Amino acid sequence: MRWLGFVAFAAACGSDAPTTTPLASDGTHLRDAEGRIALLHGVNARIAGVFDVTFDDGRTALEPIPALTDDDCTRMRALGFDFLRLPINWSGIEPVEGTYDEGYLANVDAAVQCAARAGIYVMIDLHEDAYSKEIGEDGAPLWAIQPSPMQLLQGPLDDLGSRRTSAQVTAAFNTFFDRADPAAVRAKFLAMLDRVAARWATDPAVIGFELFNEPPVGDTLVTPFSFEAAARVRAAAPAKLVMFEPSATRNLFDFAPKSMVAFPTRDAVYAPHIYTYVFQSDPTQLMNLTADALEPSVQAARVEATAWNTPLMIGEYGIGPDQANADLWMGVQQTLHDRYFASDAFWVWKEESQASWGLYDHNADDTWTERPRIVAWVSRIRAARIAGTVTANEYDYTTGALHLEAYGGSAPHEIYIPERSATTFAATCDGAALSATRDAATGLVALTCDGMLDVTP
Questions:
Q1: Going by DSSP bridges, is the β-strand pair 37-38/382-386 parallel, antiparallel, or unpaired?
Q2: Assessment of whether the complete model's pTM goes beyond 0.90
């Protein structure tokens, strides 16, 4: 099918046409208002006042969380990030059962508007790690931990691994995902989700809502939860996308069971995380890493998304900068994400705790210094919007070049050019030179090519 614009697409598909804004799903790709494939390149950001890790009873905060400023958002956009995966916490939204904290929700509003001012879309992520800050890192409020915890914890957070598998965390998850919902915890979560989705249902900066971060139970329990939660989001925010994850076991095994049915809520997006070999206690596979070893996980993710009849978004990926073969790991991931038409979100923007994976070093005087090496990982030539029927989208991480083949489009492609290539990049269409002006704020160039487009740094 040749894409003649979103309006023509909608007319052709009738009542089955996507209805979400500003992006929609065609069952395989995200599409923009002109019918072009939208490949989002994003970043996760844990933000002070939004990522809830503090206590009001004298316990030590779990970890330091940086603020988000307009300079941060502007810099994200300049580096080629066009969407923000924004983790928010039930504990901040509803710290007391039935009472929604308007101050906390205003902090989320502020982060959304920061991104919007910089031209960045936002995906609001209902995040948790080890169920709750009270017994893990973040997520549910104290009143929503059932059975009641045997011990409340505090910072510094230097034992997250053992917290994830503790008896009280395991018990809380078992209660939450129990199909019978014996403590009505899941029902209360869904009521909170209704409120969140309704609040940003018409915000043009928000593309959608992610239902639950890294659910650590089996897919036989995750899938019915996702169906139920997605239906609630669709009812509260009919014009937004719904992102859903498989069981967190996929992070370890690099595949999830292939669905036999399409996802029942329209405009859903499959959003697994990919950390192949990164969290294994034995570093042997990273030390002996080859490029071919990383492809099966991304390839399987695309197969899983196709089975669900959804686009693919890799909601988290990344590696510690001090881990073996980190440069190779990241370079290959960029290639694979383009090859399999996956939007993505790098973990993480700024981080001074845990393994400090972010794009910045945190200095002793509480300032931040950009890391050129990590910037080079994520800020690279890529296709942000692709017009027409695409047959190839290949990024060469060794040269930094992009090869795109697409036919029959009526709008120009949008290609991101990083700052380091702003004055040196070259583009050709079927071998003929193209001229283009790079937008200084976004790094984008518009290139019209019905055929083979090659962009070199």
A1: antiparallel
A2: yes
